[in-house]
Specification:
This protein is mainly α. The chain folds into 2 domains: 382 residues, no CATH class; 101 residues, no CATH class. It has 21 helices and 4 strands. A 4-stranded mixed β-sheet has the order 1-2-4-3. β3 and β4 form a beta hairpin. α7 packs antiparallel against α8. The termini are far apart. The N terminus is likely disordered.
Length: 495
């Protein structure tokens, strides 16, 4: 019997070692891609916003942004190390550095999701959840990019871990237990201040906490209601303090409008990214359904349902409903949802392995996970062909023809990334154009036509062309181009 137990322990160690090695390998495999993979336009938007903060500009007041600001303020101090306006090499090095920061935050998220999985299902489930988290193609694409969704993830996953502890800590003194809920609420509020997309976590999470409160009966109703209130206060504190900081600088109203009111009325609609998620993550989603069924069905029907599982299921349901509400849910919108899917997929695979009566052996686990890694490996291989050579060459043209103080007008190419923007809208894609009023468009075009602002270079992409004949007539009048992309002033600006 002792020999049999020792054999199972050895198999578990071997299986766990394989999973850990696979997690590390998938994280390390991204490093060669960081300097060469093409930059998403969002990355250049977020890098410019952080650089603008470094220069002392206030988001929403001095320039337009529609993402909550913590990421920009967190990234901006690092510009002290990189003279990005003066040197193309420094600009490139900062973009690489920003991606390395995102990779480090992704590794932190993987460690936290291991803790959440272990809390509800043991070490193997935790390792599987972390592996599925780092292995899904959509997560691979988005979690090493320069974007606020990346720091939002560890706050979000940390909140799940803290709230899970609070829900399960029934033998802990009430005041000490409230600390878990307070910390969980603060993490959720911090996640929202990284990106307002994380607001979609709140309805499901609060529904899960509400069910937990009702399940306690009259005896514990007061204690559990107090815990939920503590969570709400924790969520509100980062938001209120951030708003107050902007209000003191004359940006309180635009902070609310640009981040919440404007985004709530976004007009552009697209569902193609949902198809990409389903195509690349369907094995994890199928396993996630199995894991959700395991969590709901309870193998031990005499025992109570795990309150942490209820919270996770409700949060997952709320996020899925939120994706249906968002007019254009891009791939980064799915990061929290796919994170939860990874947790339930780990539970599902662990259940299937146990049901096969070979769950104590290492080789079924290895075979199952190797099969699930085929899509990520193929995707990583394909990513090597999507290079940023053209983008860097274009950025080199901008640096060769403009100085650090010269304003550059850009649509959505990101070529003004480390140049002053001549107008508050430093990007002007068609999604934003659809949201602007006629008077706002008139003010934008009027400032250019009157020459009250004078771009030293215009990067003429299809997004700027979509501004229409009035804008094109202005460009033809005042600018010339050799390639149809970059336009320089027809005559030197008056000194």
């Amino acid at each position: 019997m002792a020999l049999a137990d020792d054999g199972r322990s050895t198999a578990r160690d071997a299986g766990g070692g394989f999973l850990l090695a696979a997690i590390v390998a998938l994280l390390v495999a991204r490093i060669p891609l960081i300097p060469v993979r093409a930059f998403d336009n969002d990355e250049l938007e977020h890098a410019h916003a952080a650089w603008s903060v470094f220069r002392g500009l206030v988001p929403y007041r001095d320039f337009f942004e529609h993402h909550t600001p913590w990421y920009y303020f967190g990234l901006s101090p690092f510009f002290r190390w990189f003279p990005v306006a003066e040197s193309l090499d420094a600009a490139r090095h900062f973009l690489i550095f920003g991606r390395l920061v995102s990779l480090a935050l992704t590794a932190l998220s993987a460690a936290l999701i291991f803790l959440v999985g272990r809390l509800g299902g043991g070490r193997r489930v935790g390792l599987l959840a972390a592996l599925f988290f780092v292995a899904q193609p959509v997560l691979i694409h988005k979690t090493f990019e320069i974007r606020p969704d990346v720091p939002a993830l560890p706050f979000f996953i940390g909140a799940l871990w803290l709230l899970g502890h609070g829900l399960r800590a029934s033998d802990v003194p009430p005041l000490r237990r409230l600390r878990w809920f307070a910390a969980g609420g603060l993490c959720l509020g911090a996640a929202v201040m990284c990106t307002q997309k994380l607001l979609f976590v709140l309805p499901g999470a609060l529904a899960g906490l509400g069910l937990w409160t009702l399940a306690g009966g009259r005896r514990s109703a007061a204690r559990r209601t107090a815990a939920v209130l503590v969570v709400l206060i924790g969520v509100a504190v980062p938001m209120l303090l951030t708003w107050l900081a902007f209000a003191l600088r004359g940006a309180g109203d635009p902070f609310i409008h640009d981040n919440f009111v404007l985004n709530a009325h976004w007009r552009w609609r697209s569902s193609r990214h949902l198809m990409d998620v389903l195509r690349t993550s369907w094995p994890i989603l199928v396993l996630g359904v199995v894991g959700g069924w395991v969590a709901l069905s309870r193998r031990d029907r005499a025992g109570p349902r795990d309150d942490g599982d209820v919270l996770l299921l409700c949060t997952l349901g709320g996020l899925a409903a939120g994706v249906l509400v968002v007019p254009a849910a891009y791939e980064q919108y799915y990061l929290p949802l796919l994170t939860l899917a990874s947790l339930f997929a780990a539970r599902g695979l662990s259940f299937l392995l146990a049901a096969s009566r070979r769950g104590a052996r290492a080789w079924p686990l290895v075979c199952a996970t190797v099969a699930l890694l085929i899509l990520p490996i193929v995707d990583l291989t394909r990513a090597t062909g999507r290079r940023n050579d053209v983008q860097m060459a274009r950025l080199g043209f901008v640096y060769a023809h403009t100085g650090p103080a010269d304003p550059v007008l850009d649509g959505w190419l990101g070529m003004a990334v480390f140049r002053p923007h001549p107008l508050p809208y430093f990007f002007m894609h068609r999604e934003l154009q659809a949201m602007l009023t006629a008077s706002e468009k008139d003010a934008y075009l009027g400032a250019l036509e009157s020459r009250s602002v004078r771009p030293a270079l215009i990067a003429m992409d299809d997004e700027l062309r979509a501004l229409g004949p009035r804008f094109l007539a202005f460009v033809r009048r005042d600018y010339v181009s050799d390639d149809g992309l970059f336009y320089l002033p027809a005559s030197p600006p008056q000194k």
